[in-house]
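Got a spare moment? Tell me how you read both lines of this record:
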Amino acid sequence: MDGGGDDTPDIKDESHVNVHNSTDNDAPSTDTLKPRGVCGMYAGLFLVSFSVMLNYFVSGTYQAYDTSTWQEHSLLSTINVVRGVIAAVALPVVAKLSDIIGRFECFILISIFFVLGNIIQAAASTIQAFAVGSLFSQIGYTRIQLVGEVIVADTTTLRTRLFFLFFSTFPNLITVSVSGNVTSSVLQATTWRWGYGIDRSVWAAIGIAFFGSVTYTAQSEFLYTVLYVCYDFSINAATHVGSDRAGIIAGQVFVGLASSLVTFPNIIIAMAVTKHEDVAVLTSLWLVMNWAGYAVGNCITGAIWTQLLYSELQKNLGGINAAAVDMVYAQPLYVVPEFPVGTPERTAIIDSYRYIEKLLVIATV
């Protein structure tokens, strides 16, 4: 693949684009796509990204409720640590598999994991069963992400690759706005179980990625709970942080911009000095560090949350309503609304959660 000089076209100028099914340089097996087919493929990637990202946003809200259902809200970060580790470990395997059996064939295979995980989560009767479903879903989600980015590497030049890697994130402009409406409507009409079922049926270098994921995850893991408990956000607003709390919104916007503007250009630089047959492995390594950072961020969050929140609640709330301490800690999304904003109990709860969130933000600096 050309490194990107002045005579390099923005989109490959050949009469067709080869989506590689093998890394055998002597006799590669390829699927030939005409330009119209490439356009259709990217339209499909956009729709897949929309579905997966909508699922990502709403499932974060549902997950806060399902852990509360079993009075295990503090296990939220533990589940996500395991998900991050599994995601990191299996990525290189999928990268090589996509080279052997083909990008699209691999995409179909991993989609099965995604759908199966969603089914298990929706039907789970215990926190352990839900965790298993989360693992299957995570395997599918990260592999879909990987294969999509490898396909982009197969069909673009270095000059346009950054744009097309960003292309898969464009649906966020829509999903971040509608996800709150989705979760609000679902949770008001039924339970989080139906939420998983509905959302899943809609879709039946490297070091920077790691530390960026640590920073983003550590400060955002329990963000929904904090917004709902401390700032009296509605389900809709807490899901996509859409309210007039300008400081919170601005902070999240800057975190997102910094993560994207630093992470994506660095993977393009890494691709520029890598042979094309190694791009799939390189991309998997990049995503491995991303998800390793996700796991480390969850470790930091889980340690701070589980070790300090309960003692803060005892200190602030214990003298006002000692009986509520255990319930608020185990089932905050169900118990806290019983104490309206302005009551002594809610004020004590807000002080406790704000203190913990401040520590989480400080830990990421």
In short: The longest helix spans residues 279-321.
